[in-house]
Structure formats: C-alpha cells, structure tokens
Amino acid sequence: MSPEAADILRFLAFGLVWLFPVALVVAVLGFASADAKSRREEMGPNVVAFPAPKPPEASQKPNWLSRVKRLAIRAANR
Predict the structure, then answer these.
(1) What rounded mean pLDDT belongs to the chain?
(2) Quick check: 43 and 49 in contact, CB under 8 A?
(3) What are the sequence ranges of the domains in the chain?
C-alpha cells in the first residue's frame, strides 16, 4: 500500500473514531434545544395551558386582643 493511501485511511479512521461522535452529540443537543424552544413558543393540540397562579394576598392578622378573647371564649365553653 502506498504511503498516500495509508495517510488517507488514517485520516478516515480518525474522522470515524473522533469527529463523527462529536458531530453526532452536537447535532443531538442542537435538535433538543430547538425542539424545546419550539415547544415553549407554540403549544401543540394536546397541551393544556394552565393559568399562572395568583400571588398570595397579604393576610390580615387579627390583633392580639381579639385572639386572646377568642381563646378565652373557647376555654370558657369547655
């Protein structure tokens, strides 16, 4: 076999062993990213869009006097 043919075979082997798997990983990650982006932008027919939850409202705390009265009434009813 001529040295040029051996060099070509070595180059092809290098590409098959190292470059093809790297290109495959890059392609798979790129497709997954594009798919996720398109799913965020345009929902399919089987996707249910739930409304965003409302932020919790500030609860009004009863003052300490009314709380003591409520506890006292419960204790008296025992």
Answers:
(1) 79
(2) yes
(3) 1-44
